[in-house]
Amino acid sequence: MAVPVWSVDPRTGKQREQVAVEATADEVDAAVRAAATALPALADRSLRSRLLRAAAGLLERDAERVIAAADAETALGTPRLTGELARTAFQLRAFADVVDEGAFLDVIIDHPDPDAKPIPRPDLRRYKIPLGVVAVYAASNFPLAFSVPGGDTASALAAGCPVVVKAHPDHPATSELTAGLLREAAVSVGLPADTVVLLHGFRAGVELVGHPLVAAAGFTGSVAGGRALFDAAAARPRPIPFHGELGSLNPVVVTPAAAAERAEGIGAGLAGSFTLGSGQFCTKPGLVLTPRGADGDRLVAALTGAARDAATGVLLDGRMRENFVRGAAARAELPAVTAPVAAGGDADPLAVRPGYVEVDAAELAGPGAHDLLLEECFGPLTVVVRYGDEDQLDAVLDRLPGNLTATAHLGADEAAAADGPAAALLARLSTLAGRVLVNGWPTGVAVTGAQHHGGPYPATTSTSTSVGATAIERWLRPVAYQDTPPALLPPELRDDNPHRVPQRVTGRP
To answer: What is the catalytic activity of this protein (predicted)?
Structure first.
């Protein structure tokens, strides 16, 4: 029996339209096999870069229609989605540039040396090749940038891998629309339409990660869902890489000097960051360590005012709203917690109001003490931890899991001292997160070569990034050729280097 897939308006909770039906096991098999047939055609790097640029152009051509569909299914608003579409098109073109430049192939050539010690060296030439079909699990909170046309898809296509996307149930119509544009882009440059294939349904996601022709997977979502798929990927007869982004507290440390210099600014900035997008960013600052005393009180007072003035918002779906209301209430009801601005449900039955809870660092010192406060709460809520000295600060940091980001707000003199306590703090935070910020806020992830959007578990299940140029590395594996006749070498490994890719030859670039 076919299970319908409905598009739902989160502002009303009502079904908009039936978009598709959930894929059966046979349909998943057919989708993966169809995508696999596109693999040989993607060997042409020029076609890959043209595909990525064509996809960006089609997204921009149909921007009004795409944004309207995404807003109707997510309630994220036209301004936010306009920016997200621009970001999505930008990262598609950025990966096209990566493909054209060719450094991602990591070509290394060592010429033979019969006199090398301790043994003679053969001719060795190494580069990277695509893994094969990649499964992408779309995110709920970014219907474009982390979904069908998003970074996982763009980087996999750039690597030369066909993609099968499991659509997120919160925006199936947007997924169908954007998948159609990607397939149109593929055909327009001479690639098979099945270079990108879309599937719907929970069971389809489970079947997908177990399919023998799927070579790797990328996921953005919950810890529970991501861990289940990660375990399934590892339990296959042939385990595959599973690059999952699961959850993050994104701790912020405010030093006493920073609080003394700009308490009000930090408090207002914190409110703006944790309420941005109704708290539905994976980089939302969910735990803020603030000093006790008058300066810390000024910071919390500024936070209180800004949080109370922040607008209510609609979350992505009713299940997320229920989880948020329940989670915020559970945290506020802990005996050690004060809740000057209570987060939770609003008079509008579909909206939520932002807020925070406050706790003394001593309450979090021991294992098992208020563990709930050290878990991510998806939505507009943050936890303010008041600490008295460095020992208390360190004790809380010692209990934190892995994170996508960690932020330090420092005083001016601290920031200028290369060998002072601020340097030690940043070194400590770098053990907890993949991106360390100073005097800023983690919401907002630049798409650039130096970006790293990842971190220790449970932030991610690997050491790679899902944003930035090096995201392409997830979908590649190295191969070395030894004493291979020049006529049989891939062009990128030949001495004449007809494609003009960067080569590192006998230790020299």
So the answer is: 2,5-dioxopentanoate + NADP(+) + H2O = 2-oxoglutarate + NADPH + 2 H(+); 2,5-dioxopentanoate + NAD(+) + H2O = 2-oxoglutarate + NADH + 2 H(+)
